[in-house]
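pasting for ref
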Amino acid sequence: MHLAARTQFIKETAKSLGFSFCGISKAEFLDEEAPLLEQWLRKQYQGKMLYLENHFDKRLDPTLLVPGAKSVVSLLYNYAPEKDIAAEGDFKIAKYAYGEDYHFVIKDKLKHFLHLLEEKIGHVEGRAFVDSAPVMERAWAKRSGLGWIGKNSLLLNRGMGSFFFIAELIIDLELDYDGPIKDYCGTCTACMDACPTDAIPQPYVVDGSKCISYFTIELKEEIPADVKGKFENWIFGCDICQDVCPWNSFAKPHQEQRFQPSSTLREMSPGDWREITEEVFKTLFKNSPIQRTKLTGLKRNIKFVSESG
């Protein structure tokens, strides 16, 4: 198959597998991102997420992850729910965690994608990634025109906002490459103004060590007392900077059955959360991103938020 036909096949396959957008960029060193990543780490914005300090070169050079790589195929998969299940006064979990863990859902699709590619084209050297390796996914998605990096450091797409997962295929096929688009944030600072822990000290830079998602998911020790009263009832992750973003008014509900919240989760009251047992936790959050905190972490978060009220 020639270049254009291969590229078209990849984009059509992405659509058939349920991905909302597909963009392709040349697999090469991320020269623009290198000094920014170095500076971000130097300021210790990674907090206790020490894994972000590892594999610096691999984060910037996809050919170190896939020798001989020619192209990075970036894919967006919608997770915007039909209904926000957090009512006023309820404990809140990030929308991406309503259903089954996206790593399982999207990895299945990517494996099938690579299989279809090999069926059509022949042997392809490549790897599939979904937030599971040192890949600067937002940088690649930006390069391939899927959106721009917003002031909250998330990828924003004009057609669907930011409630989506980003995945990649890094492969040894040459393809037609897409180009970046312009930044449409303008003078808006809604995300910066809304962040209760001041985790966005300047446009396009997030201090990860001050983010509610960091405190409720990544931090394994006690949450610092100086952020007490600032979590607005978030007990797993946080969507504040996305909820206030004007571009998310264009978000449409996803069609992925595996991301649907269970009826039990939809009906959880603050009392149910406070009294959650190991048995309920294991049943309710089997194959869920919420497994990451374990019951002890979730209880710590609930206690911290409850005492802040």
